[in-house]
Amino acid sequence: MTAPYRLSFTTGGLFVPEAPVVVACYLTHRDWQKTRDQVRQDKLLQVRTDAAATRISKELIARLELLTEAELQALQELNLRDRAYLLWAAACRRYQLIHDFAIDVLREHHLLRRRQVTLSDYDSFYNSKALWHPELDALAQSTQSKLRQNLFRMLREADLLSTQHLIQPALPSPYLAQLLAQQGPEQLLVFPATDMDIQRWLT
To answer: Quick one: how far is CA 53 from the chain centroid?
Structure first.
């Protein structure tokens, strides 16, 4: 039986500015529950409401928990582009739907030299997955739209799509590529890159 998709990525994007703050807190405590508590109690995310801080910290920590210690350490030191790439990889680990879209649509378009990913491409992908995932059909239309909107926001924040939805080939540093590949070379398939590109990153 196909495992249901997690479908809670309706707001927030990649949280590129917030992630280093949360990771720094975690690296002090080495405990995610203590990290959650301090982030909320000390208002480290500097958002307007407690409800927003709770929602953002919960969502961000759920992704950061899937990074290795080495990846968390690196996140503090990476340049902005690599940091966004790492947070994109974390979102793909957390959400199988995003992971599948990254490989089935984003990378496949890149390999076929189709320069643009459209909203219609997403809708076709979503509808094809709904054949095997009834939880997708069960969502309200407004929630489906929010998922699509936020996925495209993440792609723009990761600099993998332009504002015109043109594919931007991934350009990770060799350091980041090799760090991600420690969890298996398939970790790099969520980026628009050819097999030759990936081979070059790892050598």
So the answer is: 19
| pLDDT per position as a tens digit, 169-195 | 999 999 999 999 999 999 999 999 999
Q: Which amino acid is located at 170 in the chain?
A: A
For 53, 70, 162, 179, 180, the CA distances from 13, given in Å and listed in that order, are 14, 23, 15, 23, 21
Contacts of 101 (CB under 8 A, 6+ apart): 122, 125, 151
Burial 127-139 (b: 16+ CB within 10 A, else e): eebbeebeebeeb
Alpha-carbon gap, residue 19 to 56, rounded angstroms:
10
Q: What is the pTM of this model?
A: 0.96
Tens-place pLDDT, residues 135-157:
999 999 999 999 999 999 999 99
Among the listed residues 162, 165, 170, the one whose alpha carbon sits nearest the alpha carbon of residue 187: 170
Give the span between the Cα atoms of 56 and 47, in whole angstroms. 9
Q: How far apart are CA 202 and CA 174, in angstroms?
A: 6
Cα separation of 190 and 170, whole Å?
Answer: 10
